[in-house]
Amino acid sequence: MATLRDAKIGQTVKVKKLGGEGAVKRRIMDMGITKGVDIYIRKVAPLGDPIEITVRGYELSLRKADAEFVEIV
What we know:
The chain has 73 residues and is of the alpha+beta class. It has helices at 22-30, 64-67; strands spanning 12-18, 38-44, 51-55, 58-62, 70-72.
């Protein structure tokens, strides 16, 4: 099972499934990350956290701990 945390810079991935429960899952969905949406990996911070992604036409920074809940294809 690959997660958004494993994606490399420059890669475009599709969300297969969201994990997590309650507030964490709700926060991820509120950011526009839902099943079937395409995500482009723009940058990774020098120390590896956070990652910068483009989703639904806007840039977003996401902690790797949260990115682990996003299963990708």
